[in-house]
Amino acid sequence: MDAHPEAPPVVVTDTVKNAIRIVALDEAARARGVRANQTLSDARALVPDLECHQTDDARNRALLLGIAGWCERYTPLVALGSAAPGDHGLFMDITGCAHLLGGEAALVADLEARLRAQGFHVRLCLADTPGAAWAMARYGQTRIIAEGGHGEALLPLSVSGLRLSPALVASLGRVGLKTIGCIASLPRAPLAARFGAEVMQRLDQALGRETEAISPIMPVAELSSERRFAEPLTHQDEISHVIATLASSIIKPLERRGLGLRHGRLKLFRVDGHVSELSLQTARPLRDPQRILRLFEERIAGLHDDLDAGFGFDLMRLEVVRADPFEGVQAEMMTGHATDAGHDALIDRLGARLGLDRVQRFVLADTHIPERSFGRQPVAHLGAPGPGARRSAAGNAALAEPADLAAAREIITRPLILFDRPELMQTIAEVPDGPPLQFRWRGVTYEVAGSEGPERIACEWWRDGRGARSRDYFRVEDRQGYRFWLFRHGLYGRETSDPCWYMHGLFA
User: Does any domain span residue 228?
Assistant: First the structure.
C-alpha cells in the first residue's frame, strides 16, 4: 500500500493468540519503526496517529480473486497461492505465453507496472518451480531466476520460504537450521525422521526434484482466441467487429475436430484492471460466426447495466468452454435453409437475453395423476425436437408421436386449462358412483345439464402412501354451456364414507 505524504501511516490488524497484531503496513508506517507481527499497543506507542483497519478475510479473498481474473490476460493457468492465513499470493504458469509479450522479462515488467498502476504493492518472481517463485518473491530480491538456477538462488533464503508452518520453522531454528541451504546439505533420512516428511517434500518441490502442479481457479477452455490492442477499444461497433473476428478464428479448429460451440465465454480486459465476462449457451452445436456475434450482441443488450468500457478494453478473448459433436442438418430444397434453423435461432436469442436455463419446454412425466403428468425442463438439456415430435396444445407438452390412436385420444380428452392444484367445491351427486347434479364453485352455483364419466384413476400409493384415495373424473356441462372437469376424491363405502369433490380443469 502506498500512502499519500499528507496521510497518516496505515496498518492492518488481526487477532493473533488473543493479541491484536500488525499483519500488514504501508511504507510510511515502516519508516517510523512499525513492523509486522508487532502488537497494536506497541505500534501506537511509536506512532500515535497510526490509522488502523481490521483485516477482512472475505473481502481480501474477493479482491484476490478479482486480481486473479485480471491476470488471465497473461495466462489461463492462474491459481491461488498458499492457503495459509494472510498469504495473498497467486501462482501463474506462463509456459508458452511469454513470447506474446516479447519474452519473460517484458511479461514480468508489464505485469508489475500494471498492478502498481492500480495501486498495489507487488513482489514477484519468475522461476522454474512454483516453490522457488514463492520463496524468492517473499524472502529474496531476484525477480527472474535463470533457467536451471533456482537451486543455487534459494540456498541463502530463510526456511520460511519452503511454505512450512510457523511451528515447524521455529523447531528448525532452535537447532540452527535457519536457511534452505542448511537443510539441503544434511542427510535426508535423519532430517525426515526428526522433523517429518513435509520438510523434504517442500524442499524437493522448490528445487524441482518433485513435480508440483497448480490448480487453476477457472477451468481451462478447450479452445480460445484473443486479440490485443495498442489503442484500447471503447465503441460498440469496434467491439462487435472484434467479436466477429474471434468467432471466425475458432470455426476451423472446431471443424477439424468435428465439433460445434455449445458454451462460449467472452472476456473483455479493461485497462484499469476490470474484467467483464459474458457467457452464452446454444440449443445445438454452432459453427456460424455471424450467429455467434448476434448472440453476444443480444447478451450485451440484455444486461441490466450497459457494458462499461471505461478507458477502453486492451484485450478481448473468446473461449470455447464446451463443444459438442456437430451433426449436419438436412436443408429444405427450395430455401436451402435447415428445417429447424428458425426454431434454434429463436431459442438461442431467448437464451442470450434471459439465460438458456430459463428457456424451457413442457415434457411428459411417468405418472397417471393429471397434475403430475408433465413438467418443465430447459430446452438445452433436451436438445431440439426431432422430426417425429409435435406440440400438443391440449396436453400443454412437447410429445413424441403416440404409438396408437388410443393414446392420442387420452391426451385430447384432457381439458385445455388444468389447474396446478384441484380446488375444493360443494356438490350434490348420486351415491355411490353417480355424476354431480349440482355444484357450487368459487361462490357460484351451477346446474348440470349433462355429464360423461366416470374415468377412474387409481392412487399412487408408492408416492402418497397406503392411505391415498382413488379419483372418479367427470366431464360435465352446465345449462349455460360451460364444460368442466371435476372428480370425486375417494370411493364411497370402500375408501371413505364422505368423499370430497374437486374442480380440476376447464374445457374450451
Answer: yes
